[in-house]
Amino acid sequence: MTLDTILIANRGEIACRIIRTLRAMGLRSVAVHSQADAGAPHVVMADAAVEIGAGPVADSYLDGAKIIHAAQEAGAQAIHPGYGFLSENADFARAVGQAGLVFIGPTPEAIEAMGNKAGAKRLMGGAGVPCLPGYEGADQSDAALIAAAGQIGFPLMVKAAAGGGGRGMRLVHDAAHLPEALTRARSEAENAFGSDELILERALLRPRHVEIQVFADSHGTCLHLGERDCSVQRRHQKVVEEAPSPAVTPELRAAMGAAAVQAARAVDYRGAGTVEFLLDEDGAFYFLEMNTRLQVEHPVTELVTGLDLVALQIAVARGDALPITQDEVRLSGHAIEVRLYAEDPAKDYLPATGPVTLWHPAEGVGIRVDAGIETGMEVSPFYDPMLAKIVAHGATRADALARLIRAVEETVLLGTVTNTEFLADVLRQPAFAGGEATTAFLVESYPQGFAAAAPSPDEIALAAVLFMERDRAAALARAGHVPADQLGWSSTPLLPRDLALHFGGETLTCRIAAAPDGWRVWAGGSEVYVLIEKMSETSLRARIGGRRHNVTHAGAGEVLHLARGARRLTFHRPGAGRDDAAGAASGHVAAPMPGQVLSVAVAPGDRVARGDTLAVLEAMKMQHQIAAATAGTVIAVHVAPGAQIAGGDAMIEIEPEE
């Protein structure tokens, strides 16, 4: 079968990654994009691009009819769905085939068989694949689920039967909390997947999440490419992935690989797929689900096998036989990947939007950064907050880990909040470095959540210096030509200047004065002399107390973004915007980001305690509880369920208690 033009029904980093392989294979690529993504990198990279609708995914990337029409108009013979969006939608895969196009993925029947967790568990049990005890019954009443839970025992997992990604999933430790978990899981599942069907499953509290990459062609070959360990998760969403797993022996790999191949053969699988297992502390493993698509974390498998999984997907889709046998699969070295998110770990991982003021990915031996962003673009509220994947490969796990920590530090995204510092901290945790992380790792390592340290006197001084250098450059531009040797010169000592900087809702005060080749700053009870060695529009090399500091910076006006190692800091000078923390403490509750109001839990006159849920907002594919920051009485509610609101919009007013 001839496939020379392929449309990518996706966006962001995965669309860019697919285009790179198509280009290497000499194939033509067609991108689709929403109006919000008109200038996105994947649109620029592709050989052709078609606009398919407005920013919201329902109007664009989830509109299968528009995507198929775009493929036909562009002369594409096939559609690659990437992951997310329509990649595991059996109806879309079927419609692609009915339109005379090739869907680069499994058959609609295989997607349907594995797409529903209840049906998949029944199917796998019949195929002899080990499964956890649970309930997958047709009776979805609370009474039936509560009765089944009593038989299974606690703790247990409540899961949406459709979909994945941690949505519609709740861990329940006792019967008292089950009714609320059922209500919340149903609501989230219905909003995310259009189905409120649930299953119950016995919970393993400290397992590993180990998944097997499988591949099958139409010539009878079905094999596995080893495992990935994806145990480091928060809210059932993966944060760090690696291959091979530090907990898997060659014997266990063979057993899990055989079970994964058995699972794939049970649905007559074709193409790339992933069979996910929970690996218990005693070495027993249990089927979790099968993802009938390419995984986000596929780069770690590519790096340890030397295979291009997208190229293999295309080969299988055009009818070719897989070019390798199971005996020829070799794992070389170790690879680890982290996901760079636009989110604030210190605020319960709240997704963030905003501009990409500066983007500079790390480079070097063994480093790979898959991204779909560039300087000047905007992080939109319409899409998933994952912006890039940073991956490192080395001869040993220790080599890969050392390279990855450095790559995380050197990958700089400024302008919006990211999880960079959190990622670096996770990688340095003794439990992770020792290969001991389970799915409980983040809860056990950060029982109070993650909180970045307050700015040090050195960091405050560097921020003050950058603001003053920016002011000096602006003054020089207005003054006209001044000889370089006279910059900063004065016949009398320059008087120190008081400077107030806002950081994270706090006001930091310092005093700064010009000094030979730099600045003297009094901050945080310390006197800091900053000797400037080299400075450019986005970088500063300075010495403080004999120690060199390399800083990347960006921003304009009264806003400064600063990167120092893995630290990402944003400072504001007075007048640069609303103090959200102060606003929340005063009882003014504003939307933390654009989104749709799903529910409102309070009415005027209600008394609330600090931490009570006020409303639920859906944004960036997740539901977010809006909680009271102060105890008091609700005096006004400005939103209603179904309303689409912008970031910063007033939602609720609370009169704080005295």
From TrEMBL:
UniProt keyword list: ATP-binding, Biotin, Ligase, Nucleotide-binding, Transit peptide
Sequence ranges assigned to domain ATP-grasp in this UniProt record: 121-318
InterPro entries per record: ATP-grasp, BC-like_N, Biotin_BS, Biotin_carboxylase_complex, Biotin_carboxylation_dom, Biotin_COase_C, Biotin_lipoyl, CPAse_ATP-bd
Gene Ontology MF annotations: ATP binding; ligase activity; metal ion binding
Cofactors (names): biotin
The organism's place on the tree of life at top rank: Bacteria
Gene3D superfamilies: 2.40.50.100, ATP-grasp fold, B domain
SMART domains with a match to the protein in the record: Biotin_carb_C (SM00878)
Lipoyl-binding domain location: 579-655
Domain Biotin carboxylation: 2-447
Protein name as catalogued: Acetyl-CoA carboxylase biotin carboxylase subunit
Originating organism: Antarcticimicrobium luteum
